[in-house]
Amino acid sequence: MSCLENARELQQMMGQGQTNEAFEKFYHDDVKVTEVATGEVRQGKEAQRQAIQEWFGMVKEFHGGGCDSICADEQNNVSTAETWMDITFQDGNRVKMSEVAVQHWQDGQIIDEKFYYHMPSQG
């Protein structure tokens, strides 16, 4: 499948609540994930799996979400996805978050991913 097809299937699965299944299918064991806003870098599938579990542990209620756009540069095996979610955290703070993920693909799996988003504390 192309990067675009993989990225679309990934977003479709996540939109259907199959985050864990999508993660197992589409993330390479040696994936590197960078949170550009904070500078945090996670190396390896296990580190990213733990970060996802911690993230969902902070969420009290999910009100909705979606993917506004996906595009791909097939020549360089890169896709981007613009997504959003409306959530309430465990502390009661409700936010609508949006981000762009830039995903580099290798053999049908994400080998490098960068997340770009606005942090509320950034003003």
Layout of secondary structure:
Blueprint: H1 3-15, H2 19-26, E1 27-35, E2 40-43, H3 45-58, E3 59-73, E4 78-89, E5 94-106, E6 109-117
Parallel strand pairs: 1-6
Antiparallel strand pairs: 1-2, 3-4, 4-5, 5-6
Helix pairs in contact: 1-2
What's the total count of β strands? 6
End-to-end gap: 40 Å
Our count of domains comes out at: 1
Do you know the CATH architecture? Roll
CATH class descriptor name: Alpha Beta
Spatial arrangement of strands, main beta sheet: 2-1-6-5-4-3
**Average pLDDT value?**
94
Largest sheet: 6 strands, mixed
Question: What fold name stands as the CATH topology?
Answer: Nuclear Transport Factor 2, Chain: A
N-to-C order of helices and strands: HHEEHEEEE
Report strand %. over 45%
Tell me roughly what share of residues is in helical segments: 25-40%
Count of separate DSSP helical elements: 3
Ranges where pLDDT stays below 50 over 5 or more residues in a row are none
What is the structural class? Answer: alpha+beta
Radius of gyration: 14 Å
Overall spatial form = globular
Polypeptide structure, described:
This protein has a single domain, classed as Nuclear Transport Factor 2, Chain: A. The protein has helices at 3-15, 19-26, 45-58; strands spanning 27-35, 40-43, 59-73, 78-89, 94-106, 109-117. Helices cover 28% and strands 50% of the residues. It is globular and about 45 Å long. The termini are far apart. The chain has 123 residues and is α+β, with helices and mostly antiparallel strands. It contains three helices and six strands, in the order ααββαββββ. Strands 2-1-6-5-4-3 form a six-stranded mixed beta sheet.
